[in-house]
Structure formats: structure tokens, C-alpha cells
Write a structure and sequence with these properties.
Distance between the termini of chain D: 46 Å
Largest interface: A-D, 96 and 76 residues
CATH topology of chain D: Helix Hairpins
Largest sheet of chain A: none
CATH class of chain D: Mainly Alpha
Oligomer: heterotetramer
Shape of chain D: elongated
Order of helices and strands of chain A: HHHHHHHHHHHH
Number of domains of chain A: 2
Chains: A mainly alpha, B mainly alpha, C mainly alpha, D mainly alpha
Helix content of chain D: over 70%
Strand content of chain A: under 5%
Number of strands of chain A: 0
Low-confidence stretches of chain D: none
């Protein structure tokens, strides 16, 4: 491999480790959070370097948009006193010695395993590619997510739904009193929101044959929703429409799976000829549902808001 | 290497140089508002030059348009976000002492 | 050509290190966030450079996603106020 | 050094740091950042390992990629719920730490 490439990888590796440590050990938690956001950006570059553009897209959409928004929102809500922490929060004390020792032991064991692994090993590539023709899509990552291991994805949407239910059963938070948004923020939303919808839809569509898919599209849409909420705060109460949309992705996924069972194929076993259509149906419902649920996770329940 | 490639590399190199200058400016300048100024320079010019250089190597019009869209987006949302920050900063704290580090 | 693009990507990555020092020093939340903003556009530039160095078109899509979300963190900060600053 | 080994070592480093912070920190937000870094390290180990199993065209194994995308979404939903719990804890008790961590 050329030396420029190696230098790039080496610099990226050092930066990732340094940023992660600063994100954990900075006394000022606001600084730690900003460093964590930057860490996410560089993580997306690392996924690219490792030949995983689908993962990089998901990381870019979630890491740069939603995760940072959630963390900054929490910092604002717990206020300055809540953010205050010790001067050296991870200092090695006697009480932490055991933890440190265990962690070092685990790391040493993992390094030993890594060094013992041969450079080339059998994986599931061959199997994934052999069935690709019959899977209904031509991007092997999407085929894995929505065909070979569709039950994983179904349960993952279930986890997201549970997180939303968890936020909904908590008591409402006081609404942050915000001044009227300045006009440029409205311009920003007016441009970014339609673009997020278009690019989200594009990612969903392109996911069938190239990097992209329902999560990446959904996360992007959700970031657009968060921006809209910041410009004109809205409440996402528990009206039936919101509930229906939140459950929709999981429900469509489950119903399609059961329909396959009734048609004789087995749960979530798509007949090869129609697999593409079913996958597109599931992904569309999943994307809208994921986007809504991620926005609900940001907006939460606020007292006195609708 | 033909002339087009050379020009393209020159532009990309100038763009990368602007990123370096911009981040050094961010590091050396004394206060938030002048740093905002350095940032917008690095953003707009650095990325703009990189995009222009790469556009010379694009294989299709679609690629050129995509590159242009990326640049326009960063430019637009970057300048609005910076405006909002400057606005909030000057509105809430007229005199800003340099003692806000939490450490 | 690809090697030169890689070298440029490395140069931009290096300039991000300089920007990171501003995240580290602050002093205010705004200073840290504008440095993060610069790092975001740097990441976009690196993705575009790598897209052309490797010929992988999906990287332009990733750059597009990052460009769309470039201002989100700053907007959240300005609208919410961070760490108890007056909103 | 191969990509798999370099990024694998980064993954181990992230796992170690994240785990230490998640267990040792007092402030719950810091613990949560620790969990997230730990998760990123595990993802990194997966994706780095996938480059050891390339197909004929030189592409890495797609199955770990799909698992990690699932993992990213699960991680962000868990983080969001944990942050919501943290804010309630802080609102009720005025401190963002667990009861057993409150001395000193």
C-alpha cells in the first residue's frame, strides 16, 4: 500500500484514540460533548477507509445530526450546575484500581487475539453474494438487513419503539422558554428540510443497489425534523396519528413477515421474484417510522405544549 | 499528467492550504468574532477550491452538480449557523471576559 | 493522480488537528463549536477527495449528508444554550 | 501493518477507554459517553475484522456491516432514553450522579 495512504490511516487512528480520550476525560462536559461529536465525524472517515460506506452514511447521518443534538439538548436542560464535574474525573484512585486492572487485562487479551488472527479469514461474503440474485436487491448490506437477517432489523425497530415508549412514560419536562427564532433560521429550515426529504428518499431508493437504505434516510429526515423543531417548537403528543406513525414501521414489517408465513414461505422468507417489492414496502414504512421516532426522542414530552 | 490534471491539483492544493490557514487562524486569533471570520474564509474558499479542482476531473455533469450542491450547502448552512452564533453572542453578552473555561 | 489526492486528504486531516486544538482550548462554548464546524467542512472535503481518489461514488453521497447536517450542532446550541448559558 | 490490524488496535483502545469511563466516572453523562465510545470500539472491531474476509472482488464481508448499522441505531435509541432518564434524575435530585457515587 502506498505511503500516503498509510500516513493517512495512521494519522486518523491516532486522532480517533486521542479524541475519544478527550471526549471522556475533559473536565468540562460541554467540551467533552463537542469532542465526542467530532469523534463521530472521524469515525465516519474510518468506516470509509475500512470499505464500509453504508456504515459511514449511517454514522454521518446519526453522529453528525441526532446524537450531537441529543447531547447538547441535555447539557442545556441540566444547566450549568448539573454540568459541573470534578477537575480530574477519571483520575486513577485506589477505588478505581480494580476497574483499571480489569480493563487493561481485557485490552491485553483482545490485542493478543488480534495479533494471532491470520490476515485472511473465511467470512460470510461468499454466502451473501451467492444468494444476492434471489434477495431482491443488489446491495449485499441491504440484502443482509432486510432479507437474510430481516428478523434482526425487525427487532431493532422494536428497540427503537421501546425507547420511544420509555420516553413517553416519563413525566413531562418543563418547556424551554425560547425567544422567537431569528429569520435566518427560518430560511435555513426552508432550504434544508425539503433537501433532507429529497436526499432521504434518494438514500432509501439507492439503498437497493448502492450504499444507503432506510436507516440512513430516516436519520437524515429526523435531523430535518429536529431543525424544524428548533425553529418552530412543536409538540409530538400522543395523538393517534403520531402513535400510528410510530408503530407503523414495526407493524408493516411484522405483517409482511406473517403474510410470508401464510403464503408458505416461512416468517420473513420472501419469494425471490417479489422480494424487491416487499423490501421496498418495508423500508418505506420503516424509514418514515424511524424518522418520526427519532424526532420524538429529541422532542420528548413537554409540559404545557399542546 | 496533462494541463487539466495539473490545474486541478493546483486548485485542490490551494483548497487544502486554505483549510490549514483557516485552522491556524482559528487557533491564533484572539476572540470569537474574529475566529468566526477566519472560519468562514476557510470554509468557503477551502472547500470551494477543492470542489473546483475536483470538478475538473468529474466524468459527468451529474457529478459536477453534486459537487456544487455539497459546496453550496456547506456555504449556506455554515454562514447562517455562524450568523446565529454571532447574533446570540453579541445579544446576550456585550462584554465577554476570557474566563469561561470550565477547567 | 490518486496518490496526490490522498496526500491532499492527509493535509486537510492534518489541518483538522490544528482546529482540534481550538476545541480543546475554548474558552467559550461558541469557540469550541465553531472549531467543530470547521472540522465538519474538513470532513466533507476529505470525503470528496477520497471519492475521487478511490472512484467510489457513494462517498459523494456521504459528503452530501454531512453537508446537510453541517450546521445542526450550532443551531441546537444557539437555540437551546449550552451548559446553562443564558438561552 | 494491515488495515485490519491497525483499526483493530484502535477498536481495542476505544473499548478499553470506554469501558473504564463507563465504570469509573461519577457523572452519568460521562458514563454514557463511555458506553458510546465502548460501542464504537466494538463496531470498529467488527468492521476491521470484516476486511479479513474479502470476496473475489476484494469487497469486505457485508454481514458485519449490516450488524453494525443495526447497532448504531440501537445505540442512539438507548442513548436517547438514558439521556431522558438522566434529565429526570437531575430534575428530581439536583445531581447527575447515582446515589452511591454522591459522597465527596
Amino acid at each position: 500500500m502506498a505511503s500516503e495512504v498509510q500516513a493517512f490511516d495512521l494519522l486518523l487512528a491516532v486522532l480517533l484514540l486521542w479524541l475519544a480520550w478527550r471526549a471522556l476525560a475533559s473536565a468540562d462536559l460541554f467540551k467533552a460533548v463537542v469532542q465526542y461529536i467530532v469523534f463521530g465525524l472521524l469515525l465516519a472517515l474510518a468506516w470509509i477507509r475500512l470499505g464500509a460506506p453504508d456504515v459511514a452514511l449511517a454514522e454521518a447521518a446519526i453522529g453528525a445530526g441526532l446524537a450531537g443534538a441529543l447531547l447538547l439538548d441535555t447539557l442545556a436542560r441540566i444547566g450549568r450546575a448539573g454540568v459541573r464535574d470534578e477537575a480530574r474525573p477519571l483520575r486513577l484512585t485506589r477505588r478505581r484500581a480494580g476497574v483499571a486492572l480489569a480493563v487493561v487485562g481485557l485490552a491485553a487479551a483482545l490485542v493478543a487475539v488480534l495479533l494471532a488472527l491470520p490476515p485472511a479469514m473465511p467470512g460470510l461474503s461468499a454466502e451473501a453474494m451467492a444468494q444476492l440474485e434471489r434477495s431482491g436487491v443488489s446491495n449485499p448490506v441491504t440484502a443482509t438487513l432486510l432479507n437474510y437477517r430481516a428478523h434482526d432489523t425487525l427487532l431493532e425497530i422494536g428497540v427503537l419503539l421501546l425507547a420511544v415508549l420509555g420516553v413517553w412514560v416519563l413525566d413531562a419536562e418543563p418547556r424551554l422558554d425560547q425567544a422567537e427564532a431569528p429569520a435566518p433560521l427560518h430560511w435555513l429550515v426552508r432550504v434544508l428540510l425539503p433537501l433532507a426529504v429529497v436526499v432521504g428518499g434518494y438514500l432509501l431508493w439507492v439503498g437497493a443497489h448502492a450504499p444507503g437504505g432506510a436507516f440512513q434516510g430516516g436519520a437524515l429526515l429526523a435531523a430535518g425534523g429536529v431543525l424544524l423543531h428548533l425553529a418552530r417548537p412543536f409538540a409530538l403528543g400522543s395523538g393517534w396519528l403520531v402513535r400510528l406513525a410510530a408503530v407503523g414501521g414495526f407493524a408493516v414489517f411484522l405483517l409482511v413477515g406473517l403474510a410470508m408465513l401464510l403464503l408458505g414461505g416461512g416468517f420473513l422468507h420472501f419469494p425471490p421474484g417479489q422480494a424487491g417489492t416487499w423490501i421496498l414496502l418495508i423500508e418505506t414504512a420503516a424509514m418514515l417510522s424511524i424518522a418520526l421516532m427519532l424526532v420524538v426522542l429529541f422532542v420528548g414530552r413537554s409540559r404545557g405544549a399542546g | 499528467m496533462n494541463a487539466l490534471d495539473a490545474l486541478s491539483l493546483l486548485l485542490v492544493g490551494a483548497g487544502a492550504g486554505f483549510f490549514l490557514v483557516g485552522s491556524i487562524g482559528l487557533l491564533r486569533l484572539p476572540d470569537l468574532l474574529s475566529r468566526l471570520h477566519a472560519l468562514t474564509k476557510a470554509d468557503n474558499l477551502g472547500l470551494g477550491l477543492v470542489v473546483a479542482g475536483l470538478a475538473l476531473q468529474a466524468e459527468s455533469l451529474r457529478q459536477v452538480l453534486q459537487l456544487g450542491l455539497v459546496w453550496a450547502l456547506v456555504l449556506f448552512s455554515g454562514s447562517i449557523a455562524c450568523y446565529l452564533l454571532a447574533h446570540a453572542e453579541t445579544a446576550s453578552t456585550p462584554v465577554e471576559p476570557e474566563t469561561r473555561d470550565g477547567e | 493522480m490518486a496518490a496526490a489526492l490522498w496526500a491532499m486528504a492527509g493535509l486537510v486531516l492534518f489541518s483538522l488537528v490544528v482546529g482540534l486544538l481550538r476545541v480543546e482550548r475554548g474558552p467559550g462554548p461558541g469557540d469550541r463549536l465553531i472549531a467543530a464546524q470547521l472540522l465538519g467542512s474538513g470532513a466533507v472535503a476529505i470525503l470528496l477527495l477520497l471519492a475521487f481518489a478511490t472512484g467510489e461514488a457513494a462517498l459523494v453521497d456521504a459528503a452530501l449528508v454531512l453537508a446537510l447536517l453541517a450546521g445542526v450542532a450550532l443551531v441546537v446550541f444557539v437555540r437551546r444554550g449550552g451548559g446553562g448559558e443564558a438561552p | 501493518m494491515s488495515l485490519a490490524l491497525l483499526y483493530g488496535l484502535v477498536g481495542v483502545g476505544l473499548v478499553a477507554m470506554g469501558l473504564y469511563a463507563a465504570l469509573a466516572a461519577r457523572h452519568l453523562l460521562r458514563r454514557l459517553l463511555g458506553f458510546n465510545v465502548l460501542g464504537a470500539g466494538v463496531f470498529m472491531l467488527f468492521i476491521a475484522h470484516a476486511t479479513r474476509a474479502v470476496d473475489a472482488a476484494g469487497r469486505p464481508d457485508p454481514v458485519p456491516h449490516a450488524l453494525v448499522i443495526t447497532g448504531i441505531v440501537v445505540a442512539v435509541s438507548a442513548t436517547a432514553l438514558a439521556l431522558a432518564l438522566l434529565r429526570r434524575l437531575h430534575a428530581r435530585h439536583g445531581r447527575p450522579t447515582l446515589p452511591e457515587d454522591r459522597e465527596g
